[in-house]
Amino acid sequence: MLIGSSANAADIAGLCNTGQTADCSTTATPGGVDQNWTLTSAASNTAYDSASVNGNWLANNSTSLWLTPSANGNQSYDPSSNGFYSYGLNFDLTGFDPSTASFAGRFAADNLVNSIMLNGVALAATGGTYDRWTDFSAASGFVSGLNTLTFNVENTAQRSGNPTGLRVEFTQSSVAAVPEPAVWALMIVGFGFIGGTLRRRQPQRLTFAA
Predict the structure, then answer these.
(1) Which fold has domain 9-178?
(2) Residue, of 118 and 206, whose pLDDT is higher
């Protein structure tokens, strides 16, 4: 009972879908700057919640929005060479046991995701496209304190009509809190009590007279 009460799992705070408000509670108004995700690229250092997106992309909804390098999701990029865009999300596991953390989700991208990095280590999922979801997940690679999840998107060169963007939704996450010192003390006392009880319950040996 002591172990179970100290290892209750919780959702990982800060795993916000693209286009959500700062507290991950609801989808933001399209067209603004995303409050959780950042973008590193030659085109922009800001990730926008796109108010208008290419008609071939999965439509924005109340769960997530497309992120693009500008508020106009139809803007064309990379006319002569492939473009590279890194979208990053930070979340904090202070007070939690990183070895118990996991998450799962799905993404869509234009054109594709070259890699997904958790604290600099690549996850298995890559590829994807803009008109359907691709699954991804992680069950290791987490660290105490600040963690960083990065999606590296490649946009194939095209002279015109060449938007780019990323959309991410988390479908599950879990992590257990690190037990407080008082809980650890109770656990140690509990284990000692169990051990003493088991020793007292050991059967006595019977000796027969010759």
Answers:
(1) Jelly Rolls (2.60.120)
(2) 118
